[in-house]
């Protein structure tokens, strides 16, 4: 709860820093601020309660996901220090990033549709601007505009859905909605349309196929740090919101919604994994890979709506840590060579072995090779779905993850080829890479460390 | 009396909405859209939701329509420049939006089952204020962050980079 205020406070501080000329302090204060927010969250850990007339609900679920968002934000900030250095509007960018984080925290802790909507909008509007923050680059502007159009469309669906559900149940509170739905005998028909529209709106945000069309262009066009933010913090927030709303409010419809969730899942797995094979730009490939990961998360969620949050938390942690690691390397390569084409990774192993190892670890983790975190994520998802009897769907997921292994190995193979020029990296980047490699291994070898939800 | 007002307003709203779609000149479309908005504001007053009616007129008929007119003016849209659309696309669009209409009508036939909230006074400004500053205080305050983010975004997109680049 207080962590949310700390994050909002840093956002406002960043804006004031422009006025009072404290610009050189912004990065330091932001960094300390996120750490303070994590500390405050740990202090609140035992006090599970509602806040503000049941608008927010911080239970284990919300606090675990808030913690994940904040920890990933620390690494994100570390990785993208250069993004804030020496360029125009650095305080504005910093403030918008903190508003994104605040929006994501609201999306994991909401207990009311109004807060969900505001969280999504705060997150999205900040991201539309951040995606276009590289104004010299035409692709960045295109990404921003595309994201804006698609995002506002999705918001329209979500709002329409919320309105119809309100009409049927008379409440915005997600627990009261569940009460009304489970107690009333004949629900009006439009509540089903409302639930489906909410699902469509959120599917846009988590970029599940067929609502993923914006993702590749936006991920490729946006500045690399913002792409990293979108594929970690934003994805965690959006998927947690999806899980929360369908496992609390609409749990009674879980059987009827199963077909839709499974449809989304199969389409996502097959289309995203197959398309990713043909990409030559690593950012675009990672975009398709992040769409594909949603498929595995949906498999876990659709297998067991009520009790899958632990598995989803583990999977998202593993995915986010591996993604941040991959994007750190991609950013360094992109700064050195101008673009993130896979061919630019040639000879990285000879040139700068640390980066090559980091990239290999990230790719292996995303592909799901033991003993890395990604393997246990997939393992937990598959055991959950098999134990609920979805053997056929699990087989589809296993086959698509084998396709995944092919495209994740492409950059690894390229890195091992021929001689390459060494790329110099700063000590702070080295430290970040080493810590992230260590964390990826640690969570993979000791998965019980974070099974807290 | 209320019933006649309802029918009259509905007729005006639907008729002018159709004219928005069918008129060739975009400026006429915008003007008909304003009439539609006023008719809908009339509906809100019939429903005893004064606040909503006033906000609807101020925000939609005021702010949003000015925005529309600006865009039309800047892009210099008129009858000749309207791009010719493929017949297949037109048929597909009509078909899919017709399906959506069918689904909505089919589901809203149960609208009599709408949950009845307390009394008819809920739309008055006083009651709205009490809800806004009582139960919905948190979303009300958090909306300020949303507006702040939007303002910062506008400044970032709109402001010249050169002036800021050397610090």
Please report the distance between the alpha carbons of the first and last residues of chain A: 17 Å
Number of domains of chain A: 1
Report the sheet-strand fraction of chain A.
under 5%
**Biggest sheet layout of chain A:** 2 strands, antiparallel
**CA radius of gyration of chain A:** 21 Å
Q: How many domains in all of chain B?
A: 2
Number of helices of chain A: 18
Q: For the residues shown, what is the average pLDDT of chain A?
A: 91
Largest protein interface?
A-B, 47 and 36 residues
Give the amount of beta strand of chain B, in percent: under 5%
Q: What is the architecture of the largest domain in chain B at the second tier of CATH? A: Up-down Bundle
Give a brief description.
By secondary structure, chain A is mostly helical. Chain A is built from 18 helices and two strands. Chain A has a two-stranded antiparallel ribbon with strand order 1-2.
Description of the structure:
The complex is a heterodimer of chains A (453) and B (167). Chain A has 453 residues and is mainly α. Chain A has one domain (2-450). Chain A has helices spanning 2-20, 23-43, 60-79, 90-109, 113-131, 138-169, 174-183, 190-206, 214-221, 224-248, 254-276, 282-303, 309-337, 348-351, 353-367, 373-387, 391-416, 427-445; strands at residues 49-51, 56-58. A two-stranded antiparallel sheet of chain A has the order 1-2. In chain A, a hairpin with a 4-residue loop joins strand 1 and strand 2. Chain B is mainly α and 167 residues long. Chain B has 2 domains: 1-80, Four Helix Bundle (Hemerythrin (Met), subunit A) (Up-down Bundle); 121-161. Chain B contains 7 helices and no strands. Chain B has helices at 2-22, 26-46, 50-75, 87-108, 125-133, 137-158, 162-165. Chain B starts with a helix and ends with a helix. The model of chain B has no long low-confidence stretch (mean pLDDT 84). The interface between A and B is large, with 47 and 36 residues.
Task: Name the descriptors.
heterodimer; A: mainly alpha; two-stranded antiparallel sheet; globular; B: 167 residues; mainly alpha; Four Helix Bundle (Hemerythrin (Met), subunit A); 7 helices
